[in-house]
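Holo prediction — guanosine-5'-triphosphate.
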Amino acid sequence: MKTIEVDGIKVRIQIWDTAGQERYQTITKQYYRRAQGIFLVYDISSERSYQHIVKWASDVDEYAPDGVQKSLIGNKADEEHKRQVPKEQGLQVSGGCCVPPPPRGQDPSCTPSLASLSLSPLCTRDPNSPPAALPLSGTPKPPQSLPA
Ligand SMILES: Nc1nc2c(ncn2[C@@H]2O[C@H](COP(=O)(O)OP(=O)(O)OP(=O)(O)O)[C@@H](O)[C@H]2O)c(=O)[nH]1
């Protein structure tokens, strides 16, 4: 649980890290029901973890509330030399949003806090307004410009 300020509004965020293992899936799905935002995280050094995103996204479509904000995150971006999933591939599905990796030498555990900042503004939006990010299902958009 953490309180942060977004555009002058204090927002209290509660983040649940659900288990990835198959045997916990019955429990995991129960967390989707009341979620206002969902991070789908894959490991950029594992093509397999990226392929699993399709399954996670379909679970979210099935169990999470309609219109829930979704954000795709390529984790371990500090390990660029081990990358198996091209950046463009992740950007295509996410609609072009890119959270930079932590600076070299910095604890990678700071990544989730950067991620939460990227999602929380979406959660404070009017739920009737169109989502800022591309839904993970549907036709991928061409990648937008990459940060330098
Ligand atoms: N280099 C680097 N390592 C990371 C990063 N994020 C997590 N790790 C490491 O990756 C390993 C797996 O992390 P977990 O948080 O257990 O992964 P998980 O997907 O939550 O695992 P399950 O919940 O069991 O599915 C750990 O050794 C972490 O320290 C990152 O951004 N960079």
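READOUT: Residues 67 and 97 are 18 Å apart (CA to CA).
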